[in-house]
Write a structure and sequence with these properties.
CATH superfamily of the largest domain in chain A: Type I PLP-dependent aspartate aminotransferase-like (Major domain)
Oligomer: homodimer
Largest interface: A-B, 195 and 195 residues
GO biological process, one term (chains A, B): phenol-containing compound biosynthetic process
Strand order of the largest sheet of chain A: 1-7-6-5-4-2-3
Radius of gyration of chain A: 26 Å
InterPro entries (chains A, B): Aromatic_deC, PyrdxlP-dep_de-COase, PyrdxlP-dep_Trfase, PyrdxlP-dep_Trfase_major, PyrdxlP-dep_Trfase_small, Pyridoxal-P_BS
Helix content of chain A: 40-55%
GO molecular function (chains A, B): carboxy-lyase activity; pyridoxal phosphate binding
Number of strands of chain A: 11
Strand content of chain A: 5-15%
Family (chains A, B): Belongs to the group II decarboxylase family.
Keywords (chains A, B): Decarboxylase, Lyase, Pyridoxal phosphate
CATH architecture of the largest domain in chain A: 3-Layer(aba) Sandwich
Number of helices of chain A: 15
CATH topology of the largest domain in chain A: Aspartate Aminotransferase, domain 2
């Protein structure tokens, strides 16, 4: 509608004095706007199943629909809501759709959304305890509750079993990447100190390690923290460990570096990789790293949530010997974005690198040492009251419902896996550990297979993914595991029921049949 | 109530099959929970004025009120709401209170809260364009709107005036610290390349600069990015520049480093420091930095919002010559936490350091180069739909109301300043640039002053702050400027009206009189 060569100066509207002064937080307005928003949310959840999961919009579509210059005068809130419904919603990828099977689901719940709403209305900035005592303490409490659900040792909790402060503790951050970054920095500084570095000069000798299946954000976090790209070791994995980190290979790499005069500094182990849900053996990794006094971080962003069920808890065995662990309730514990819980065994190692103490934040409570100032465990200073939604989720649903939710997702994934295994055109490529099924149209080995060789199989699977996603009735993503192009079917979107999984499978079968038919016609 | 030595295993409740399966996002439940939350918010805004701004709670108070073990079974949402009202609210520091004058206000509005609610319900994760096209495009649009309100040159916008993609662009981040960190990393990598560093070896030669009034988070961000603490230059400021950065001193420091074979890499200029709202001269700083090809970042976290008014825009003069600028609508543009807008003149310099390209995120749109994948301009991968609330604020209130809001706050601050100047027991310590007044009980020079000398003045002002804050009727913070202990009176909490400012002044006068009387009795 508008265009950017419109004179921006037009936005400098002269201030026309209204009769009423402007009250942006007038309680009646707030209630009225929020009721409209709640109506939208209600309608959205009622209808999202019928919306195309992946919209068929072209780059720039929205910029063509909405005005390119900011309005100079105010408009009823209904205008924004109308443009939201008519212009924004049609271009959304609907992560809340029960037909969303891509990436990992962003699970959510009524309690979490309500908690987030209240937090955004209170709008506290809890950088220090004094700046928001209840926000800090509720966050600490929620983290300790979650630590108990996960069966983490008391050494990671903010309160010891005796009720006093221990050396461990947690903090809620925005992303796993931030958890990696702050622990990398703490480990880096410790390694510089113990290797007798003059300032940061010794950073060129520090080495870090992770399996090649580790999330790319780890390698990015290493670069952010200043590690030398040449010293970031990506340890190869293979089918023999189901793409989990092989402790023997890790030991070999760390020993070779140590022998070469380098300083092994940090190992990242993943419980439930993003690519295929591989699990690195936490205890064995910790044992190897201990020989070099390297920091071990466990990234359990997705699968950590499953560990609230006793039958999955073994994936964390050995966690008492690592230095830090992070997991994201915004992935699989029904807590809307963003909520990544980082636990460290010795908070002083973290705060030693992250503490700031500007004059205007000084106060008696901080000076007393009796309180936690959460700004000293994160990148920034400002922080939202994210503990509220996490606490509300646990308070309202309890361990029982949360476990039920995990088990229901896993059961649906198992159902999908069985369906795949029952059709010999397909294969499950790696063992299913949680609620992610990695499968593909198999290369021709028997008469039933439709794609000859790996190249053909990749082509057929790409075609399948693209056709599926174009229907708007399902959204699946892909990965490459052991050189094979694989479809990822991630179960768990919070509105999902078994019927959605079964419908998706029917669509996959039908689309595959069409691909076979089209391939036949092409010949 | 509970205690942490309760057996955590109790949390592993056996899964008792309910009649109804668990539906965490049932639309009727969502609506019901949200209506309760809206009622809470309405009551909160109606009553927050009467709540103590700063609660009188002791460390650990909440942990004594709430159970220390997570519940094993579910509970009605009303239970969480009851504990919120009875245990959490009494321990909150009420940033939304009109009697809050500490730090900077966290301004907010009905449109922003509604936008945040909808974003948390849609719960998209817009790491790539494809993962949420509308979320990416609305964020880009909102940033371009704001750039126009700020009078930023087109080189910082995502769209050029001709409608195509330029080299500039923006991204919404969580905090200013993150904006500093990612630009520091981009500048670091560029400096390493141009200085011919072998890997990161040359990092020991890179130097960074900021005025001594710069937010402490800048110095922390430098350390996070691996800069040598010995190479982080804090340039002294004084009353002669109203505590703004002196370009001559900057030049001297940069030249000395360059002469010593070091590589000046990055300068942070602040428009509106946290301590006293000092303003570094943006254009002059840019001119100095240009001699050394150093990156210039402008931190306008708070005062950037004021620059939407033509009468304040001169504080950004010269911005067309800097490399990046960040400002936080969550501070003064009525957008709830968190929302920091980072603009860079050449996005490729940022994405060159921050890009990742894992297999499972590859897609045609990204490959085409026609879209922005915002994950490549931030620390993490996951990201909330923060553009929605920012867009809703501008769409609903328009430039006119936003300017009115800024001007109203500044006018109230001016009123307070005049009241202070009218009482010769007090002095305004530095010129008021925006809506922050730095004042103090003045040391005795005339008969009217109550504190003899600087030490006495500090004692009296500390006493004043503590007594004020203990009343619960006002919350002010302090700083130290030029060695003087000063009270910060920040106007602008969104529910604030002139009567609150006048009441706070009455309280300040009354409390000061009491302090004088008590001091007299002590003698």
């Amino acid at each position: 509608m508008g265009s950017l060569d419109a004179n921006p100066a037009a936005a400098y509207a002269a201030f026309a004095a209204d009769v009423e002064p402007f009250r942006p937080l007038d309680a009646d307005d707030v209630r009225s706007y929020l009721h409209k928003a709640v109506d939208f949310v209600y309608d959205y959840y009622k209808s999202v199943e019928s919306l195309p999961v992946l919209p068929g919009v072209e780059p720039g579509y929205l910029l063509r629909l909405l005005q390119s210059a900011p309005p100079s005068s105010s408009a009823p809130f209904d205008i924004a809501m109308k443009e939201l419904r008519e212009a924004v919603v049609p271009g959304m990828t609907h992560w809340a759709s029960p037909n969303f099977f891509a990436f990992f689901p962003a699970t959510n719940s009524a309690a979490a959304i309500a908690g987030e709403l209240i937090a955004s209305a209170m709008n506290t900035v809890g950088f220090t305890w004094q700046a928001a005592p209840a926000a800090t303490e509720l966050e600490v409490l929620a983290l300790d509750w979650l630590a108990q659900l996960l069966g983490l040792p008391a050494s990671f909790m903010n309160r010891t079993v005796a009720g006093g402060r221990g050396t461990g503790g947690g903090v809620i951050l925005g992303t796993t990447s931030e958890a990696m970054l702050v622990t990398l920095v703490a480990a880096r500084d410790a390694a510089l100190r113990r290797s007798g570095s003059n300032g940061v000069a010794g950073i060129t000798r520090l080495t870090v390690y992770a399996a090649d299946q580790t999330h790319s954000t780890f390698f990015k976090a290493c670069r952010l923290a200043g590690f030398d790209p040449a010293n970031i070791r990506s340890i190869p994995t293979g089918a023999e460990t189901d793409y989990g980190l092989d402790p023997a290979r890790l030991l070999e790499a760390m020993q070779a570096d140590a022998d070469a005069g380098l300083v092994p500094t940090y190992v990242c182990a993943t419980v439930g990789t993003t690519s295929s849900n591989a699990v690195d053996p936490v205890g064995a990794v910790a044992d190897v790293a201990a020989r070099f006094a390297a920091w071990v971080h466990v990234d359990a962003a997705y699968a950590g949530s499953a560990c609230i069920c006793p039958e999955f808890r073994h994936h964390l065995d050995g966690v008492e010997r690592v230095d830090s662990i992070s997991m994201s309730p915004h992935k699989w514990l029904m807590t809307c974005l963003d909520c990544t819980c980082l636990y460290v065994r010795d908070t002083h190692r973290l705060t030693g690198s992250l503490e700031t103490n500007p004059e205007y934040l000084k106060n008696h409570a901080s000076d007393s040492g009796e309180v936690t100032d959460l700004k000293d465990m994160q990148v920034g200073v400002g922080r939202r009251f994210r503990g509220l939604k996490l606490w509300m989720v646990m308070r309202t649903y309890g361990a029982g419902k949360l476990q039920e939710h995990i088990r229901s997702d896993v059961a649906m994934a198992k159902t999908f896996e069985d369906l795949v295994r029952g059709d010999d055109r397909f294969e499950v490529v790696v063992p299913r550990n949680f609620a992610l099924v990695c499968f593909r149209i198999r290369p021709r080995k028997s008469g039933a297979a439709i794609a000859a060789g790996e190249a053909e199989a990749e082509k057929a699977n790409r075609e399948l993914m693209e056709r599926l996603n174009k229907t708007g009735k399902a959204y699946v993503a892909h990965t490459v595991v052991g050189g094979r192009f694989v479809l990822r079917f991630a179960v768990g979107s919070s509105l999902q029921e078994e019927r959605h999984v079964r419908s998706a499978w029917e669509l996959i079968k039908k689309t595959t049949t069409e691909i076979v038919a089209d391939a036949g016609e092409d010949k």
